[in-house]
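Dear colleague,

Thank you for sharing your sequence with our group. We've completed the structure prediction you requested, and as agreed, I am returning the results in plain text so they can be pasted directly into your records. Please verify that the sequence below matches your submission; if there's any discrepancy, let me know and we will rerun it promptly.
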Amino acid sequence: MEHGILLATRLVLILSSILLAGCGSPRNSGPGASFGATCVASTDCESGLCVTAGASRFCSKRCNSDCDCSGSFVCVSAGADRVCGPGTNTCGAPPPDAGTAPDAGPPDTGVEAPPSLGFDPSNLNGWIHGQSLGTDQDVLIGCPSCRCRSAYFNTDTGEAMCLNRRSEETILDVPFHVVMQPGAPVPADSLGVFLVNSLTIQDGGTIAFNGDRPGVLVAMEHITVTDGKIVANAGGWVFPDLASGAQRGFGPGGGGFSTAVRPSGGAGGGAGGSFCSGGGLGASMTVGAGATYGSVSCSPLLGGSTGATPGGIGSGDGGDGGGALQLVAGTKIEIGSAGVVVANGHNGGGSSVGSGGGSGGALLLEAPTVVIGGQLSANGDRGGTRLGGAGAYDEFQAGNGTEDSSAYGGGGGGIGRIRINTDPSGYMAAIDSLISPFLATGCTTLGRLQPRSSPPPTATCSGVTLASDSCGACLGEQCCARLQACEGSALCQTCRTSATPGPACGTDALVLAVQTCQDDRCPGACR
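Please find the predicted structure tokens below.
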């Protein structure tokens, strides 16, 4: 559920390099403050636009061209608007002297250099360099008459499926790789990575990422969501269907349930899942919220956790956690004013005894320029029953479930994480709409792209690529044959990817062979 998305629009301009320079001494803020004055909120400004640049906030104004902005300000796009932001204003300046012709550079050899990114995306450990980035695949989603009105990318199988307006399926030939992510719990210890040249979503098109692994989409050029939606379900912890019985939530921040018995019998509602912020408590509970987790950098890339189910008659499954998605573009990521990217949790179930809501997931955006004119959200969802607590969103914490004579509400899910990394030499253009969670919560943060480094050695076994000497030696020389055999067994695959392996996993020969090999030969980071 996209809590807070329809709240009053804010306009925030974020500088991804240094604080404002050349703006003169700050003037006092207050109601009706003029252009360039410091401010705290939009109501302080005569223009009604208070924007953020690094750690500073100042009054901006709308514009049509650079000539409408003075001093060290230029006119930049902000969704459907244009506003004055930091930059080099050349309005009225004479054209530069043409001078002498530039050096033609080295002669053309006729051999085109392989395309590559100019930075190291997070979590991929340099693996991306030297890969074929699918430069012949420009993915367009959302044109009414084309083959791809909506799309589904599966991070477990690598399948990329399109549906046209008649719901007829076609397969997109998108390169897919599995890349290990050391330090993350199974199944988030590997990433499902899709490679394209560009991605454009328009005319209300949608793309959903599904699967157990967190998803990564790398575009050599741009990712543009003009009018449409990207939904991150992949990598979020999922609550399995249970016949009966109380069950703690799944994932690092899974919600808990009270062992206390109500006078009418049974326990209270289940607690919501936690992530960047804690989940709410279920009705009649004093304990049970899961621990918060994850890093501000979204490295490793982790999804949200599920709420708990208190079990018994009238109970339902805990809400699933929001997914984890990393979007990487070589030039620009732009979310238009009608664009939406979400990694929200899901609501808890239950008719009279509510389960906890799932926490929001994680969104990581990386490109030299990132323009947000639409909506980003990683919100928690509400707890089960009509008395369930609200999921966390914006700057608000998850709500606790309440109770009456006929229902016990589950706790709401905690808020997730958003990270935006941009070029150190440039700025992140305007954010012209709500990002939830707010920057002030610390659950949405800004950072710098990592400079490109030399790619480490890699090894591949049964479709799994490892950017590490030790992991490569383990899988490539010792365990590869056993892993390949495991790939052919549905039970073995289920046992290796499940957060709660069943009893059969403890006796399955293939599972034991893989586990024994990894225990004997591989360092902990490779398992």
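Summary note from our side: Confidence is low (pLDDT under 50) at residues 1-29, 95-114.

Kind regards,
the structure core
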